[in-house]
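Field reference: sequence -> structure
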Amino acid sequence: MTAPGASDRLLVVCALGIEHRALRSGARRAAALPAPGAPELLRTGMGPRAARRSVARRLSDEPVPGGTAVLATGFCAGLVPGMRPGDLVVAEETSDGSESTACTGAELLAAALLPYGRVHRGLLAGSDHVVRGAERAVLRAGGAVAADMESAAVLHAAAGSAGRRPVAAVRVVVDAPGHELVRAGTLRGGISALRRLRTVLPAFLEWHRSLLLPWR
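Structure field:
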């Protein structure tokens, strides 16, 4: 008996060209690893509307409804003091303030990512713009540990498609309260985040593999 919601295909979704290139690089390195199947990479373009539209269109072509696990990834703004560029954020839930989606196997995903760097878990907030300054504190007060523009839209579109499917989100911190994009050192922070994103695809595959294991 397989776990409820088990899916034999994995769709990894990002927004930006630089994120897509980093993931493609990671996919080449992970090609020799045992896995239930090579992940499909989907670039949606920036913003929640583009993300929602691209994911809905892709999943409308599924041969078996619910047969594809969906994982949103890319860069994010960290909201917790002490976060550093390159830290990893595993969403337990995503929310844009009006729609929320619970994530599948967040604990397993966080454990798979531990060898790759510092991991934070919690609420991932969705926004339609880059968050800066005081807005970070508002989102943090609402319980979010990080924010990005696409994850909430991706997961809501995926979970709302026909059939049950596992959904997850992993983001790499590109800036944080002490390392905002407008500050000196931004370039170094961006490089740290990019390097981290290139490495983590094997952990995504490990999470996906765990969904296919027999229920114990």
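Note: Strands lie at 9-14, 40-43, 68-78, 88-95, 100-102, 119-126, 144-148, 167-175.
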